[in-house]
Design goal:
The chain is of the alpha/beta class. It has a single domain, classed as Rossmann fold, CATH 3.40.50.150. Helix content is about 30%, strand content about 20%. The protein starts with 19 loop residues before the first helix and ends with a strand.
């Protein structure tokens, strides 16, 4: 089975942070074997539209949906989005922000063509940081996060809403928010990197990465 590239086997530190463009480009490369050359992709929660720009450079028809009035979007309302139209929907770090995740997944499935793809990421509440630093894990800190899942919970939620899992795993060792002093946080996270980097493959194999990544089909 094809593995998630790059970001799945790296430890993530904001002191030397990986640019969003690089991460999104890796995700496009991961999706590419599963998509037709002119695939239509909906970025569900597209924000500034970085993923959209990269997807279009790869020749895909990319569309954005977001409720943020400052976002770069094609659609502000779910009603505007055509049903059974998209080859793939990407939903990066969005589902933890919504009141009703099940309703969102049903809406996404409605927008997909039969056997269309959903590529989803969300914080892992049972990742390394969630287990060690508890309430200081970024997934649990104030910032609009309403639902934090474990990998098995996210898989079950998708299955219960009509999706079939293609690949599910965890990756990334996330930033640890232990102090409001930026330089000290940076130092702490460099130490964290040095400690856990040699064990990253084992950590991810044990589903201890701080981010969940799932590819599923409708």
């Amino acid at each position: 089975m094809k593995k998630f590239p790059g970001v799945s086997t790296q430890i993530h530190s904001r002191c030397g942070k990986t640019k969003g463009e690089i991460i999104f480009r890796e995700r496009i490369h991961y999706l590419k074997p599963f998509l037709p050359p002119d695939a239509s992709i909906l970025d569900f929660g597209c924000g500034k539209g970085i993923f959209l720009k990269i997807a279009k450079k790869f020749g895909y028809q990319a569309f954005g949906y977001d409720i943020d009035p400052h976002a770069v979007v094609d659609y502000y309302s779910l009603r505007e989005i055509p049903n059974h139209f998209f080859d793939a929907v990407v939903c990066f770090d969005v589902i933890e922000h919504v009141d009703d995740p099940q309703k969102i997944l049903k809406n996404i499935r409605q927008k997909l063509k039969p056997n269309g793809l959903l590529f989803l990421t969300t914080p892992n509440r049972l990742g390394l940081a969630g287990r060690i630093i508890k309430n200081k894990f970024w997934g649990l800190t104030p910032g609009g996060h309403k639902n934090i899942f474990s990998l098995s919970q996210m898989e079950n939620l998708l299955k219960n809403n009509g999706f079939k899992i293609i690949e599910a795993k965890t990756n990334i060792i996330a930033w640890w928010y232990l102090t409001k002093i930026n330089w000290l946080n940076c130092l702490i996270n460099k130490i964290v990197f040095l400690i856990f980097s040699p064990w990253k493959k084992l950590l991810f194999r044990l589903n201890l990465g701080d981010s969940i990544q799932i590819l599923a089909k409708s």
